[in-house]
Amino acid sequence: MKAAKRESRIVAKCFLDGTDIAGEIVKAGHAIDYTYFSDGFYKSDERAAKSAQKGLWQGTFTEPYQWRKQNKR
């Protein structure tokens, strides 16, 4: 695990046998790249998953920040 403190949060990269777990989840289309914390590190994996219509990208998907903007309390 590699960790860094950013804005009072610990942001970490977790690996299993040298494989970046978050990267694999994004590649499979089961997560998005949150560029605020990743600096776009997984953006190419996200684009590939989206173009291949994997996981979240199989249908209509609203990114969390867009959903929160549209559904203010």
The number of distinct β-strands equals 4
**First-to-last CA distance:** 36 Å
Number of domains: 1
Bin the strand percentage. Answer: 15-25%
Unreliable segments of 5+ consecutive residues? none
Radius of gyration over all CA atoms, rounded? 14 Å
The profile of the biggest β sheet is:
2 strands, antiparallel
Instruction: Using the alpha-carbon principal axes, give the shape.
Output: flat
Q: Please give the count of helices.
A: 4
- The average pLDDT score comes to 89
Oligomer: single chain
Task: Name the helicity range.
Answer: 25-40%
Helix and strand pattern: EEEEHHHH
Which structural class do the helices and strands define?
alpha+beta
Strand order, main sheet: write it out. 1-2
Output the keywords.
73 residues; alpha+beta; two-stranded antiparallel sheet; 4 helices; 37% helix
List the helices and strands and how they pair.
Elements: E1 2-6, E2 9-13, E3 15-16, E4 19-20, H1 21-27, H2 35-38, H3 43-51, H4 64-70
Antiparallel strand pairs: 1-2, 3-4
Characterization of the model:
The protein is an alpha+beta fold and 73 residues long. The protein has one domain. The chain is 37% helix and 19% strand. It has 4 helices and 4 strands. The chain has helices at residues 21-27, 35-38, 43-51, 64-70, and strands at 2-6, 9-13, 15-16, 19-20. The strands form 2 sheets. A two-stranded antiparallel sheet has the order 1-2. The protein is flat. The mean pLDDT is 89.
How do you describe this structure in short?
The chain is of the alpha+beta class and 73 residues long. The chain is built from 4 helices and 4 strands; from the N terminus they run ββββαααα. The chain has one domain (2-70).
